[in-house]
Amino acid sequence: MGKIALALIALSASADGLGANDGSSSRDACEADCTGSGDERRCVFEARLDIHASSTGYYKFAQCGSTPQPVLAMEQGVEYTFRQKSASNWFHPLGFAYAPDGAHRGHDELEPGISKSSDKSCEEGNSCQAPMYFLQGDFLGAVDEDGSAYKVVYPERNNSGNFGLDVYEPHFLAGRGDWLAAAEEGDSDLGYEVKLTLTDQAYTNDLFYFCHIHNSMSGRIKQMTTGEASVLQEKDEPELGYSYEILSRFDDRCGTARLGSYAGNEAVCGAGKFTCGDGPTPEAEAFNECLHALDCAMHEEMRVKVHPSDPITLFLQQMIPHHENAVNMAKATLKLELLTANNDPEGEIEELLWSIINNQNMQIYKMTAWLANNGRASVAEANCGYDGDCVADTSIALLVVIGVCLAVTVAAGAGLVRMRARGGK
């Protein structure tokens, strides 16, 4: 067959909506690996996290190529398994919601007692469509907190409403070593999995997958008819409500996020450096270039206007860019592959880097939410830049210093309060 004929076939396929199926758009929604037919049809998505794709990282799926946060296609009435076997999934348990980010933004999630269609009968029996959480093949919603087995288990009607999330999510908050060990115990290699069957045929709006710990990591799910697999709703509704981060070339090279404008920007950072001397190797010098930009970003963004009466506000406004700097430093270290058998023979530094990235990103979310929920200026809104008049009253400045010291002491002893509440918990 000639090249022209092949090109025409490709154009025809695109016109028919077949597309690349890489999840880059709703038109090209990514399809799972499926086997069987009818009631025996089963589908699988294998999730991993690209920690360098954004500030918090973005989900990618083996079936969708390199597309971050791909649009997924799911047939109603078919069981889908979302595997989170990859070690990159640590601190990123998958959830499913009727609107972006679920409880992070006060939206309903797919739960046994929540129906979004006109038929609410499933709510009384806790049998509405919801994910089921598994570890090593065991359903985590089958056993009560005291260890006793439920007589009736979801999705059967009149169950306890436990679908396993309350056990699954805490596993992801454990230390990385413990999280990995739990996935590897026993004879099974299934690890962490989420199973979801879309049973509400009356509800045809798009759904969303998201991260239960980090915000703004939602991806769209297009519901499809069973068998023929035609999309039930062409329009993208509900709206996502935000744009995905696009990395600069500098960030892509360093493995960081939001640093492109600081790279080589002498107007902001000056011609000086935050490190002394040149790197002894090209790798070390490349790391120094990344460090200069991220240190410049922190130095610039920590310059914020003093709140007239609340030093805790200043503490959070400065701690957020401080944390972002730590996250970017850890990401750059991983991206540039600076760890070796000589400098990290036991993998302790690698564990530390992953802990910094995921824990401090979670804390950034909590601190940002506190500022918003309490009507305080964001870091960007409070920033006064190098030439700004950040502190006009030295007495206020002294109050702030004292307050920040107290805040650090309190935060270190008790930790920040969890900022979001999930329905039913």
Automatic annotation (TrEMBL):
Residues 1-20 form the signal peptide. The keyword Cell cycle does not apply. Pfam families: DUF305. The chain crosses the membrane at residues 396-417. It comes from the Eukaryota. Keywords: Membrane, Signal, Transmembrane, Transmembrane helix. Residues 315-376 form the DUF305 domain. InterPro entries: DUF305_CopM-like, Ferritin-like. This is DUF305 domain-containing protein.
